[in-house]
Every structure is written in structure tokens, then in C-alpha cells.
UniProtKB/TrEMBL annotation:
It comes from the Bacteria. This is DUF3791 domain-containing protein.
Length: 73
């Protein structure tokens, strides 16, 4: 299923704001990380209806990716 592009953009903004707050990153850095993430790819491709999950859930998934990346460096 494909979600409305405007609604998805608004969802992305909410996810990034939550992620920035949780991670301590600036909004700009959080946005850059988001657009390079696997979470973004899954949402944008409509895999498993990820766009239907809550903003908090998706921000948590993004945080897990971030922590994994930071720990691997």
C-alpha cells in the first residue's frame, strides 16, 4: 500500500523530531541520519506497512540503528 506523500512527509518530520530529542542530535543531523537509514527505506518502500506504525515506534527503531552505528565505530 502506498501512503499519501504529503502525509508521509509530515510523519517523517515527527519521527525526526522525536529522534533528535532522544539522541541529542541537531534536527539537521537527525534528518541526515534518517534519510540514510534502513528505517527510512522500509517506510518509503511500504515494506510491512511500516508507515502505519506509530511515530514513537519508528523513532525507537531509528535510535536502535543509530546506537548500532555508533557502537560499531
Amino acid at each position: 500500500m502506498e501512503a499519501n506523500k504529503t502525509i508521509l512527509q509530515m510523519k517523517y518530520a515527527r519521527i525526526v523530531a522525536i529522534f533528535a530529542k532522544e539522541s541529542g542530535l541537531s534536527l539537521e543531523d537527525a534528518l541526515a541520519f534518517f534519510y540514510d537509514s534502513d528505517t527510512y527505506k522500509l517506510i518509503s518502500e511500504g515494506v510491512a506497512d511500516m508507515h502505519c506504525r506509530s511515530d514513537e515506534y519508528l523513532a525507537d527503531e531509528l535510535m536502535l540503528e543509530y546506537k548500532e552505528q555508533v557502537c560499531s565505530q
